[in-house]
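Sample pair:
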Amino acid sequence: MNQNSPKIPPQSHEAEQSVLGSILIDQESIARVADIVSPEDYYHEAHRQIYQAMVNLFEHRSPIDLVTVSEELEKTKHFESVGGATYLTNLVNSVPSASNVEHYAAIVGQKATLRRLIQASTKIGELGFDEELDIAKVLDNAEQSLFAVSQRSLKQNFVAIKDILAESFERIDELHKNKGVLRGVPTGFRDLDALLSGLQRSDLVIIAARPSMGKTAIVTNRSEERR
């Protein structure tokens, strides 16, 4: 390989095509990949615009097929630039079925994360060469850049409402039967428990104080009591 040739950023043209083709074959596929990949994750501009059109239709609960996607692209003035009806038809023919759409989407997302990591490392390298910057600021900016990449790679799955209704009703019934009982983990401070009804699941709780004031002891004590 020629070491002087420009390096192509991580990307998978085939995986991007397969995601789009799967959605055109089975419009329900977009619900399976919406939490895995976003329009910005596509390397190729045409694919980015096509997927954005699909997302727009999905958000408006409109059908997703060759006709509706074409119309949506016409509205945004991208129909011709993405290759028109010919390319959209080729996308349908690029994948045999939509059964592996989540796998294809994962590949697209992973490649996008690698590209963002390269961008972050380039930025960190530039910060390192700027000797006039305060070292604390350099470290903070470097951490923020990497944190942004890791956060973008975290996806939250959709949960069907039917899957959580039963659990929610059980929780409501339990609270109704145990009125006055703390709903969460007690803090050990009566006034605080009366205000919060204990620490609730999914809460982000930050214990802040000066050094050697007992922060670790409080957290350890609460954890031991919940075992």
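The chain has ten helices and no strands.
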